[in-house]
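Entry 14. Structure prediction run on the chain below.
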Amino acid sequence: FFFFQAEDGIRDFCLSRGLGDVYKRQTEEFKTQATSLINFLANDSRTLSTLKAKSESSDPRITFLGTASMIPTPSRNVSGIMLEINDDFSLLLDCGEGTSFQLQRIYGPDYNKMLTKLRLLYISHFHSDHHLGLLQVVQDRRQAFIQIGAAPPPLFLLLPSNLLPFLWAYQSTLEALDCHIILNEDIKRVVVEEALPKMRTRRIKVEKESGDDVLEDHEDPKMKEIVSHFHKSREESKEAFRLFLAEAQIKDICTAPVVHCPYAYGIVIEHQAGWKVVYSGDTRPSKNLIEVGKGATVLIHEATFGDDMAKEAVHKKHSTISEAVEVALAMNVWRLILTHFSARYVSMRTKSKHRAIEVQHQSLGAQRFLENKSIFATDFLTTRISQLEYLPMVTSLLRSFSLSLIHI
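Output returned:
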């Protein structure tokens, strides 16, 4: 029911030694860990039965298309997450370069069919590893409808305003995108005011009466033209967006400004069936996102750095693993999925011949939450929300099993 990337330790060990010997050495430890995890889940106040009672009509599927930060690695592409609400509606959360190829690898001959369900494409912020795959996906979607001879339903691009010049350049030079554009700023929700990075203004040379040239800050005149053009169709797009939300039975959708770069946002999607998904995008731990996402079913949060690189995380405005877990605890989420890992980490294991991501600074509660209610996403990890009740337990056991092999 999900794709799980095999650990190198398991594969290498199996090539050289029989698994029978492993079972003899590890059975008791493995049994103890499994019993502990099952007992912990049995005491979870929000079990699967509770979730199903709220969400009998919908069990959305989440697929990770890219889980790397900034640049792709041999096993991870850059950011992209597919949220399939049902057989008729899908949302794409961020769309880094190569996302279309990742989708083709997963869906194969059903790629075009999947694109016909895509109705919303969300971009969290301006950095290229989150949006460079957008145009290819939009083009492929258009071709998919041409092939079946059907008129495409509206596609909504939900994005920050500082991405408008990029789209303007494409449309004015090559072709129209034929999409409704909704700005993240138009549906933002601010509960807690935070110090956010500001957009730099354009600096140009101005000749003074004295004859000296000085640099002064001015608003980019081209940006005024772009925004003015966009405003002409803004109300039409907003109305179409409202109709889409009603049709998809989305109870609420909003963005939350987060601490990363100018116009960076997280997103909260709440469905009438009862589930609530929060995606952080890139950010430092955000009090505003915590408040807006309170009580979420699933939090997908970036964990770019291990705890040993906390200073780097502050400097680059990203989060460590422990910080992401603390956000999940404060938000009171049911399950946490960690993603957006730095390319410096070859493995999620705590001990490896390669550099591994480290978890150091955790309270007992945070440690138990990480072990029993959280998973590290890999590319092509696919799960329904209901399956997340057991997925953390399965992945934790597999990770422990892999670690035990390294010590033999």
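Residues 19-42 form the longest helix (24 residues).
Filed with the rest of this week's runs.
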